[in-house]
Amino acid sequence: MVEATKHGATPLEGDGKRILMIFGSPKDNSLCNALGEAYAQGARSEGHVVRLLKLGEMAFDPVLHQGYDQSQALEPDLLEAQRQIHWAEHLVFVYPVWWGGVPALLKGFFDRVFLPGFAFRYRGVRSWEKLLEGRTADLLVTLDTPPWYFRWIYGAPGHRQMTRTILGFCGIKTRRLAEFAPVRSSSEEQRQAWLRKAETLGTRN
């Protein structure tokens, strides 16, 4: 479900940017969650309005059973997610890379929510409308693989999927992609430094 603010109350919206953070890890206690909370804290300190969408707490079927051949009714949590995406000026996706790409829960969220008529609309064979155009995104991504290896040996498939074939296809421009890696061999000191980095990123909206 959507958490309006850290303490559950919706602040008055002034000049601050409207930011929706989408947590793509199904785990409650994770480095991703800590990074996202740190980013949100930094953004709120600058007067931005931040709402949190934690996929692991939402009730929905992540499987698009019939593809686009049949309509699949959206659960209340997904309808609310669409409303929040329309509300937001800036989206922040926080997730781990698993098997080179995004977790199944996050991919299922895109499959169910970023539908024709909401995120894009085909005009012809090679032409489409980007219905979410005008929004920007930051990606906070954790990996066990060293970033250089993920990029130069594997070709960064998860990054290209997110920035180009999902967000870019719908008109959302990725502003920053911050990698926090490798997690498995990181020290407590390194993880604390990552949290400070995430908070700083939140202040730069």
List the strand order in the largest sheet.
Answer: 1-3-2-4-7-8
Give me the strand/helix succession. EEHEHEHEEEHHEH
**Radius of gyration, CA atoms, in whole angstroms:** 17 Å
Number of strands: 8
Helix content: 25-40%
Largest sheet: 6 strands, mixed
Instruction: Give the count of structural domains.
Output: 1
What is the CATH T-level topology?
Rossmann fold
- Based on helices, strands and strand pairing, what is the structural class? alpha/beta
So what's the overall shape? globular
Q: Which whole number gives the mean pLDDT?
A: 93
Terminal-residue CA separation? 24 Å
Number of helices: 6
Unreliable runs: 4-12
Q: What's the CATH H-level homologous superfamily? A: Flavodoxin domain
What is the CATH class? Answer: Alpha Beta
Keywords: Oxidoreductase
Domain Flavodoxin-like fold: 17-198
Family: Belongs to the NAD(P)H dehydrogenase (quinone) family.
GO molecular function: NAD(P)H dehydrogenase (quinone) activity
Question: What topology does this entry show?
Answer:
Elements: E1 2-3, E2 18-23, H1 31-45, E3 49-54, H2 76-87, E4 90-96, H3 104-113, E5 120-122, E6 128-130, E7 136-142, H4 147-152, H5 157-170, E8 173-180, H6 188-203
Parallel strand pairs: 2-3, 2-4, 4-7, 7-8
Antiparallel strand pairs: 1-3, 5-6
Helix pairs in contact: 1-6
InterPro entries: Flavodoxin_fold, Flavoprotein-like_sf, NAD(P)H_dehydrogenase_qn
Family: Belongs to the NAD(P)H dehydrogenase (quinone) family.
Organism: Pseudomonas tohonis
Q: Could you explain how this protein is built, in words?
A:
The chain is α/β, with parallel strands linked by helices. It has one domain (18-64, 73-203): Rossmann fold. The chain has 6 helices and 8 strands. It has helices spanning 31-45, 76-87, 104-113, 147-152, 157-170, 188-203; strands at residues 2-3, 18-23, 49-54, 90-96, 120-122, 128-130, 136-142, 173-180. A 6-stranded mixed beta sheet has the order 1-3-2-4-7-8, with helices on both faces. A two-stranded antiparallel sheet has the order 5-6. A hairpin with a 5-residue loop joins strand 5 (120-122) and strand 6. Helix 1 packs parallel to helix 6. It is globular and about 50 Å long. Mean pLDDT is 93; it is low at 4-12.
